[in-house]
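DATA CLASS: polypeptide
GOAL: derive structure tokens

***
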Amino acid sequence: MNVNGARGVWGWLLQRVTAVGLIVVTGIHVCVLHFAGGHAELTAAAVSARLDRLAYMLVVYSLLAFALYHGLYGLRSVILDYTTGERAVRAVTAGLWAVGLLAFLYGALALVPFIKG
């Protein structure tokens, strides 16, 4: 099966979905930080207070996931412009998935100390 066959449609579609998601969650993030109740402080206590709300926590984790997928899929597309072998395509895809999952895990764990729970 061609590596860019039916599976490529899902990657392309998710690239567009994450673009829209990034616009939405970035807008929410900016509104919360700059327009809702004055300027948000960037102190540990203020960040913790914001992350105490489930809705805002979902916004932050969605922003992290959407940005990682969108950026790494874009990088994959650029790399595949210069790569033709099916084996290389699979290696690039697997490597970028590993980088993305590790980066998400790192980002998610970095927020845990700020969540009061």
